[in-house]
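Below: protein 1.
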Amino acid sequence: MVSDDADELAITWETLVRRRTVLSPLRYPGGKRRLVPYIAAALQLNDLAADLFVEPLAGGASVALELAHVGAVEQIGLADSDPWIASFWSTVFWDCDWLVEQVETAEVTLEAWQNLKDHPPGGSRERAWACLFLNRTSYNGALHDRAGPIGGKAGKSDYPLDCRFPRQTLVRRLRACEKLATDGRVAFVRQAPALEVVHDARALAAKNDRALFFYLDPPFWAKSQWLYRHAFTEADHKNLAAQLLLMSEPWLLSYDPAPEIEELYKLHSARITTIELLYTASQRAAGNELVISTLKRLPSDTRLWRTSSEWSELRVSAAGG
């Protein structure tokens, strides 16, 4: 579980600092952008050239997007049981002009926010827009029915509703994601339960003789009902663990720390480690995350956040300075 090469993760950090231009347009609860260098290094350490990197619980899809962009994997496949999320990614990749037009012209108001809350979208485009608009204007990016607007419904907060809706930035991110599909980096987007996607991806990879890797980021064990439209029940967590036990393909799973999760996976031959993932500058504290994987080797560097000065040093190093 310990890397023989201490520079593996540092090299990946530098690469991603230099080339990080494809970022998710979504603010997703529990987003795993800081896990990208760790997974890239894990693939390198195990000499895995993933022809197809699949996220069956895609959400914000930060990991797949960046790995595809930097060339760490050949193609990605995204899926989510939430039709809003699946429609969003399908629209981003194959109907981006329409979505960009909405971003550029939409009125970001409490009335528009409430209208989307009160009238569930029907078509794929409408679901995609509701996903993006409510994600960028709701507290914590949460899409569940109980999530309120940024700034509150009274609109008296110091934070206006559109403070997380930077139009030009969103357009750039949407276009960068679209280019992945244009360049042939996106194999599929599906709306389906995770285990169904796992089954179908295995069949697809076997048919085409492609090396397959799964990254799974399930809904939080704790308080997920307050964050997601489609949360996991305890039975869902147990079923996922049981099915992964039967898989021969390599996979990596990330979870919020919970003794119940460690108990579910203790019978696996998989490795379980704890990493420091979420860094809060104002509190000078890092949050822990469980990483569970069937990979034989995992990076030794488990501190995945960086201070501002450390990021600056990496940028200088990456630029050759």
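Below: protein 2.
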Amino acid sequence: MHVRECDATTVRVPFHVGEDRSRTWVISRTDDGMRLKHDHRHEDGTEDEVTQYGGDTATPGSRSRQVFAADEHTASIVPESASNLWTLEIRAGRSFVYALRREGSNRRVRFEFDLTRPIDEPPAPWGS
């Protein structure tokens, strides 16, 4: 993962898996809090069939941790994800954490990225 774009309202964080550069987390400000979207692209830059899913914060969170609840768009394209909660956490200078919890199930995903080991400038995500 790397922060590729950042301005006053939006942060784009591509997440590469080997040569697969299809995923970008998009974190933006809303009138009431923050929004997390998952932008999935094909190699030619076109949107994947399952893309732009995510949700908004329901509580203010903190400077270092935010929790996003699945929105209506997410429920409409992936019904089993309607109860998803995503967490983003930054441990300044140490790690960036992305986690997914599906309420009412045992589904849990957690990625922790070591910020003490910077990477060389990676290639652009697909569609960029």
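The mean pLDDT is 94.
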